[in-house]
């Protein structure tokens, strides 16, 4: 699936607020917002053939079975990713976290969600790498290949 020029919609969920982007300019601005100025440190990104809907929308909730969770901490210069694919036949349930083979005890642990879960240190990536992966996902609709992955957890 390619986001640009196909009628695909990028939906980003910031603190239960749904933002949509359809054009390359809108998508670029939304990617910048996700990585450099998020309304919440942990957000969800969906690339689908229509806008996602919340449970407050008529006909909602509606979202694809694939999503990218992005933890972005511009003040630290770090972020982390979690890819989940719940479609039937997905490889191993396809839940993976970003993987930084150079992570060590100085690498920050980042929040996975608002419920007290944290990414492992090895999921933390320099923010520029997170931005590349988010841009790739919004362009392709598939799991980004610009970063390494390892088994993650559902949440």
From TrEMBL:
InterPro entries: DddI (IPR025680)
Stored Pfam families: Imm1
Tree of life domain: Bacteria
Identification of the protein by name: Imm1 family immunity protein
């Amino acid at each position: 699936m390619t986001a640009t020029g196909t009628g695909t919609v990028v939906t980003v969920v910031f603190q239960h607020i749904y933002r949509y982007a359809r054009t390359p300019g809108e998508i670029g601005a939304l990617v910048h917002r996700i990585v450099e100025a998020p309304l919440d440190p942990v957000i969800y990104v969906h690339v689908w053939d229509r806008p996602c809907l919340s449970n407050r929308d008529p006909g909602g909730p509606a979202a694809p079975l694939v999503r990218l969770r992005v933890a972005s901490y511009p003040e630290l210069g770090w972020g982390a990713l979690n890819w989940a694919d719940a479609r039937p036949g997905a490889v191993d349930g396809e839940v993976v976290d970003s993987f930084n083979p150079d992570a060590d005890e100085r690498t920050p642990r980042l929040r996975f969600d608002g419920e007290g879960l944290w990414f492992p240190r090895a999921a933390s990536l320099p923010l520029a790498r997170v931005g590349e992966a988010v841009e790739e996902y919004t362009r392709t609709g598939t799991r980004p290949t610009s970063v390494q992955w390892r088994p993650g957890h559902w949440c």
